[in-house]
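Hey all, sorry for the wall of text incoming. These are the two entities for the joint prediction.
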Amino acid sequence: MATLQIYGVPPSPFTRAARLACHEKGVDYELVSTPPGGTAPKNPLGKIPMMKHGDFTLFESQAIVRYVDHTFDGPPLWPKEAHAAALCDQWLSVVCDSMVQTALAGVIAPRFGILPGTEQSIQGALKRSERVVGIFDKHLADHRFLAGEQVTAADLFLVPIFFYFPAIPELKALGEASPNCGRWVREMGARPSVQATDPQFRGLNR
Amino acid sequence: MAAIKIHGVPPSTFTRTVLLACHEKGIDHELVPTMPSEITALNPFRKIPAITHGDLVLYESTAILRYFDRTLPGPKLWPEDSVGIARCDQWISAICDSLVNTALRYMASRYGFLPVPAEMRQQYLDKTAEVLPIFDRQLGCTRYLAGDTMTAADLFLAPLLFYFPDIPELKAVADRAPNCARWARDMAGRPSVRATEPQQKPRLAA
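and here's what came out:
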């Protein structure tokens, strides 16, 4: 039995971020299929993913990825140098705030039938997504990955969101209009971790 | 002249978290009053606070607190052991996700910063009433969120919880959370909390 259990489902972007971290570090883990709201060792907030390592349970994907990085050998997911580590934290936080609030919660989740949304709310979120993606595209023009020359945790949180863009016509168009994001997607798409965690999910409605 | 400049305004809960961290660690700093509309040169995502320290420009308050804790002397804001660190990270994420997306949005709508339909405002309040008891249960088990000592997680909770008494509906939610009240009294005794009390608070919208 694997030493680490991840409770969640593959289409959940945050479950995928936690799994990507395990794959990148070479941590043996078991995915325990758990839809949101039904976490086995109960997360009081009803969210996935959850992690179990021995008798230690942890929720919140950022906390899980940091714990996995501290606890296991394998390539570090944060830069060592203080300024670079701070910029990794910054981009990670921007992904989990601005990108999640616009493209994920405002467009992808309602289009997939997972969160409620009106055509008007989706169009508003698309406008905001354009601005946010534009800032990422500008940043990725000068940086191979979000926090510099190496893949870090920040990239692992962006993958699950960006890789849903092609499933939604307006976001697909936005992705195609963002050449540096496109280059980053191709580089990330070649990684075994990204291929191994592809959810093959295109929404509840299709 | 202080080496660290904090761009934000005292009533902003995340600005206050960064100011609290400076006081707790004894970091010499200067507050440069900056509204979100004025921060674009430092943070293209238009959110406060941001800091400058020499050449470094950094935004996202979680990244800022981690940077302080890694690079500057003074009492540690994160525990030393990996389980303690993970618990602290977990509570920070829980605040920045579940409590910010409910209670802070409710406050913003009551103060007139976030125009939303009455139905959505009510959802923010209902969700706050679901989420706060989770914090209350934790604070019934441990003196501070992540254990027996104060950590960064408490510095994220304090600015939010200290607004509850100002808004009758949130005060009613807080009045049903006795352990949060005990924690708030503990925190209110700290010099950092007194030194960062906003001199001007927003007014409730009609």
